[in-house]
Amino acid sequence: MKIFIFLLALVALTLTTSNWEVLFPNEQWNKFETKEIQTFSGVLKQKTSDGLSFMQRDIHYILETKDGQIDVYAPRSSLNQMYINQKVEIKGKFVSMELEGNFIKEILPSEIKIQ
Question: Do the Cβ atoms of 45 and 55 come closer than 8 Å?
Fold first, then answer.
């Protein structure tokens, strides 16, 4: 029985690490042209709240890359918790913009997988 459970866990881990999970497929902001999509790698962290945000939306996640941190936009704090503190790859659009008088850089994610 223990061997069966171990094998089942191993299959689940293999499926998880090899498949991309599509994120927010019905969101209008998540309709990118193929040329706009980039792949980002790093450790996904849940951002701790530091009080009220200067923006009208919160950033709940950051991706720690070898070059620094990038905010990851995910409405409603809705990324699967299995990705937190894991080395992941995220496909999405990188945006840098001025919003409410502040300059921000973030990833608008469309897919994610554990590396």
Answer: no
